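Hello again, I could really use a second opinion on something today. My current little project is about how a certain protein chain folds up. You're getting the sequence in one-letter code plus the fold written as tokens. Here's the protein in full, and shout if anything looks odd to you:
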Amino acid sequence: MKPIRLMAGFFTVGIWTLLSRVLGFVRDVMIAAYLGSGPVAEAFLVAFSLPNMFRRFFAEGAFNMAFIPMFSKRLEAGDDPQGFAQDAFVGMAFILTIFTVLGIVAMPALVLMMASGFAGDARFDLAVTYGRLAFPYILFISLAALASGVQCHRPLHGRRRGTRGAEPRSGHRRCDRCGDGPAAVGRAWPQAG
């Protein structure tokens, strides 16, 4: 049995988490500089908070809490973990696509629930428009989180197991993981032959 490299794992996850926080701060500074503190900024922040609220459930919450242990058991037992991950990816993509379409259609009601003070104001229409533009984020970030969970349990490109799971915290701020989901699930296993 290999010794646990606690400090290496701590520093790896710590560095990626720090990078994530710094990039998040830079994002917030850029939003404040570009939008200022007026009604446009208020509408944008309400619209931006809607997909982030659901992200906590789908991408970081209950789904991953259920998926990761089941995937790990299948991986260790050799019980078709690739098929399980692909089925989960397709199922999650289907459900989240429907959820995203419903969210976009119901955006006026969602904005009213989040910011009832916007009713009858120019901020309401802006928040609905921005919310409709931002809401598909929940689909892509949730699929990227699933792919990250798969990658975290498989060594890729010579990296140690566990280092890939910390990267998307900063990677989703760069938006380079959003289109990589199906390919990442497929790349997690060596090709036969």
In short: Residues 156-164, 168-193 have pLDDT under 50 and may be disordered. Residues 32-164 form one domain. The longest helix spans residues 6-35.
